[in-house]
Amino acid sequence: MSKDCGKNWEMRFLLQPSGGSGIVWVSKKELLALSEGIRAAIDGQPFDPRDDREGALSILKNDIYTLTHAGQEQKNVLEEEKERMSEYLSDISHQLKTPVSSILLMTELMTDAPEETQRDFLLGIKKEIRHMEWLVSVLLKMAKLDSSAVNFHAQETAVSYLLKEALKSLDIILDIRNQTIRLLHDLTLSCDKKWTVEAMINLLKNASECSGENGEIVIDSGQNPLYDWISVTDAGEGLKKEQMAGLFRRFESSQKENGYGIGLPLALSIMRAQNGDIEVMPGGNGSGATFFMKFYK
Question: For residue 74, with 0-12 CB atoms within 10 Å meaning exposed, 13-18 middle and 19 or more buried, which class applies?
Answer without folding.
Answer: exposed
